[in-house]
Structures are given as C-alpha cells and as structure tokens.
Amino acid sequence: MNSWPVGARQGRPRPDSLLLVLWALLLLTRYSAEEKKRENTRDVIFDVCATCHANATCVQKDGKDICECNYGFIGNGRTICHDKNECLSGICGEHAVCHNTHGSYYCVCHVGFQASNKHGTFIPNDGTTCIVVDCGPPPYIPNALSAPVDRTTYGNQALYTCQPNYVLESGNSTAVCNAKGKWEGADMVCKEIDCGKPPRLPNADIIWDNSTTLGSTIYYKCKDGFQSFGEHNFSECKISHKWENITFECKEITCGQPPVLSFSNMIWDGSTHPGSTVKYNCVKGFYSTGTKSHSVCTRNGSWEMLDLSCKKVQDFVNVTWKDPCVSWKRHYGSAGVNETYQVTVLMLGNESKEMTDMLIKPPATELAVNVCLQLQQHTNYTVEIIADSINLLLRLRIAHPVIHPVAEKTVFNNISIFNDTCIKWQRVPRRTQTEETYLIHLVGLRWYQEEFSHKMILNFTTNSWNPELCLNLSSGSNYTVNISTADLNHNVPLHLSIPLADPPLPQVEFRSAQGFIPLLSFLKAEGRNGPIRSLTFTLHISDTQQHLLSFHTK
C-alpha cells in the first residue's frame, strides 16, 4: 500500500481513488445508454401503426391497432397497398368515360351529354349521372327571325333569316347547339334596306314622303310645259338597295305636225306649242261636215280631235219626181262635174218584162239633172239610175204614173263590200233621224247545186252614220242582197260571190294488210261547200312503193 504524504492524505484524494471514481462514472454512463437503447427497441417492436404502408392508415378494430390500405388502394396495409382500377366495374354509368388515377378515378360525360351537377368531371357517389345536352330556345338575334326548331339538343341547328325590310349584311345565319349546352356560330348582322335619296329626273318634280326603306315609292310629275314619256312615272326601293330603274322622262310639250284632213286646205303658222291652232277648208268639189273646223294643240302634246270631214260632192241629192220626169242636184254649189248616167226602166207585172236602157251625159256646168221617161199609165215600173264614176245607184218604184207619185229620196249611198260577206254604206247627212232601220233581203244560189237555196230577211237598226253589217253566208254561193229602208222609200240591190272554203279533212282509218287490199272506208266530214269534195289517198305497197289515188265524190 502506497503511502501518501501527510498533507496529501488530509487535503487531496489519492490518485488511484480518482481513477476509480472516473471509471465507475464511465460504467454508469454506458449502462444508462444501453438501458435507454433497450427501452427504445422494446417500444419500436410493439408500435403497429409505425409499420403501416405509406398508402395505408392505422385504425383500431376490436381494441387493436391495424393497418388498412387507403380508399383506392388494395393490399395488406403494411407491405402492400397498390392502386385499384375502379373503371373496370363500369362505375361511371352510361354516356360517360371513366379515367383511373393513382388511388382514385373520375368520370367525364360523352360529347353531347353533361353531368347533372354541371361540373366537367364527377365521381358518381353523390348521385350524379350524364344527361343529354340541351341548349334551350335559340338565342335572339336583332332584326332576324329563327325558323321553327324541332330539337334543341347537341348537334341540332337553328336557321335565321332577316326580318322583312332587312337584308343580311355579314356573318353566319346558322347556330349549332354545342357540347357545353350553348348555341354558337350565328353572328349574322341584318341591316335595314335603305336605298338612300332617289334619283332626280330633268324637268320633273318628286312626290315623296321622304321614306327610303324597302318598298318606299316615289312619283315623278313633269313640270309645266313638259310632257311625260315612258311606261310609268314611279320608282320603288328594291331589295338590291337601289331604286327601281325607270324609263320615265319629261320632254318639252310639242304637238308636232297637225293631223292631215283629206281633201282640205290647212291654214297654220307652223307653231306646235300648246295653244297653237290650225284651221281647215275643204277643197273645191268637196263639202264639209261637222261643226268644228279647227284644231288646237293641247297640253298633253296632241292636237284636238276633229269632227270635220270633207266629203265628195254627191249625185242624187234632193231627188224629185214630177210625172214623167225625175230630177236631182249633182253637187253642192259648184259646177264642173262630169258624169255619165245609166238609166234602166223595167216594166213590172208583165210576162215580157219590157226593159229600156239609155245613157245620159248632162253638161258639166249644170247643177241639176232632169230625166223624162216614157211610161204607160196604170203600169208599175222599176227605174234604176247609176252614176258611173262613183257607182251610186238611185232606184225608183213607180206605180200608176198618172197619179204623179213622188220619187223616193236617197237615204243612204256609197255602198261597198269588204271581207267577202260584209257590207258598209253611208247615211245621207241631211237625215234628221238618230236611228235608221233597214230591211235586208238576201237570196243565195249555187251553180253546181240546183236544189240549194238560202233565203233570209233581216231587220237592222243602227244610229251610226257609217253602218257596217256582216252576213252569215254560205261559201261557194252567189247572193243577191237588197238593202232598203223600213218605209221602203229607198233600196239598193247588191251581188255577192262567196268563194269556196277549204273543206275539213275527213276522218280516215289507217289500215295495213298483206295480200289483197281490203275495202277502204272513211267518215265524211261536215259539209261546207255542198256536194263538192276533193279527196286524196296515199296507198303504200311494200316498203319501196306508194301510189296516190285522187277522186271527187258527192
């Protein structure tokens, strides 16, 4: 045993004791660390929740901690928790597409459908389903009309047209229901049709309510001193945004050359403006009829109508009978008319029907003509006097000349034929009656058909001074027509020859035959010319020959 100094034993520990103490402290510290480590190891081994998988959750069941994989994962919760594919079970339902994600999934509706919760994606655990997209009524477009729409679901269209008086200026006129339930595509702009200010015409005023939209109408009126020409005097605003083209124009009023009046002299200063006047005088040998002998240029650019006419001096005026002579005036107040007369006297009531003809050519300077006849008393006569140059007929019926009957007066003259079956004549201007009644006796014969006879008596009343009458006469016939007044004071005979009319084609049945030719028959068409027929037949023999057969039949 070591000995310490006295002082050391009393005041300081011994070195070997200090080392012992240090060693003991070291052992004690090491023991504490090991004990703590053993305690920590015991805690880890018995904490179950600490062993759960990263995609698992520690839960208690029956008083014990266990690990369960989170929703969307499958496994034992500790070593395995892998993703579960929910889309394999058709969880999204009809009209939807399932998209799997790590630990979850989501649903998207097919095009044309949308989620009932209005979201773009959904998980159907809240009752959401996919319903069809419906855009509802088509949207309003200003000044446009939408055609009726049967369906408003996805893909359907709505068509627009501009309202009346509007026209498409730009944009698309079709709207489509899109997958978002919105109408899209229609961006049309309808602009009201406006033609602007109407065009002005020279020498014309516009009558207008200042409207320039579609259907607006303007009217043109010529200014004083001008006359309108063209089809119409108005213009309308059209859908083309333009005023309708017009041919209307206003020209200075002039009447041009005055009307020419036959057989007259014109007294005129050459002026053709409104108010200008032209006068007429009949030339020598003609006389005037009517009350007005002048014409004035009117504001409508035309000369006034004339009721004046110049008629040739007529024979057989103021016919008088003084047994045994008949006389008449040749013209009105002017001499120098050369005329030759054919006089025929026929005795009536005698089988021999004695007839006397003579020619009379009075001096040109005499205004009156006097013809004396050699007639027997108590005998009836027909006297016809024809003026050669104008082919005018005066017919007299003389009964018992001893009684000095008065010769008939001329009531009408200037008889002529037109269009084969029509007759016209002129009434004597000095007649006072407003109406005249005529008796028409006609007899028709045919040279090729002795039994044919067409007789007719007509009453014809007219107030015209130039009557015209068309008769229903048979073709291929000669007619004697006698026109007389109702009082039988004046009558004139005429002769008409009606040409043959083209006959209608017969109804022929077409037949073909081999060997002997069959009997040919046909149905005769309705006759117009009596028994005359002209028929032509064409007979085809084989394919290379043909014969014409023509014959007449009754």
List keywords for this structure.
7% helix, 554 residues, mainly beta, rod-shaped, single chain, 42 strands, 4-stranded antiparallel sheet
Any chance you could write out the topology, listing elements then pairs?
Layout (H helix, E strand, L loop, with lengths): L5 H6 L3 H32 L9 E6 L2 E6 L3 E2 L7 E2 L12 E6 L2 E6 L3 E3 L14 E3 L11 E3 L10 E6 L3 E5 L3 E4 L5 E2 L4 E4 L11 E4 L9 E6 L3 E4 L4 E3 L12 E4 L11 E4 L9 E6 L3 E4 L4 E3 L12 E4 L4 E6 L2 E5 L11 E8 L6 E6 L7 E5 L7 E8 L4 E8 L12 E7 L3 E6 L8 E11 L2 E14 L5 E3 L6 E9 L5 E8 L8 E2 L13 E2 L10 E8 L3 E8 L2
Antiparallel strand pairs: 1-2, 3-4, 5-6, 7-8, 9-10, 10-12, 11-14, 12-13, 15-16, 16-18, 17-19, 20-21, 21-23, 22-24, 25-26, 26-29, 27-28, 27-30, 30-31, 32-33, 33-36, 34-35, 34-37, 37-38, 39-40, 41-42
Overall description:
The chain is mainly beta and 554 residues long. The chain contains 2 helices and 42 strands. The strands form 16 sheets. A 4-stranded antiparallel sheet has the order 9-10-12-13, with no helix packed on it. A 4-stranded antiparallel sheet has the order 28-27-30-31, with no helix packed on it. A hairpin with a 2-residue loop joins strand 25 (317-322) and strand 26. The termini are far apart. The relative contact order is 0.04. Mean pLDDT is 78; it is low at 1-11, 401-407 and 540-554.
Largest sheet: 4 strands, antiparallel
Mean pLDDT: 78
Kindly report the spatial arrangement of strands forming the biggest sheet. 9-10-12-13
Percent strand equals: 35-45%
List low-confidence stretches.
Answer: 1-11, 401-407, 540-554
The gross shape turns out to be: rod-shaped
| Number of strand elements | 42
**Count of helical stretches:** 2
Q: What share of residues is helical?
A: under 10%
**What structural class results from the helix and strand content?**
mainly beta
Rg on CA atoms, Å: 65 Å
Tell me the span between the first and last alpha carbons.
Answer: 196 Å
The oligomerization state is: single chain
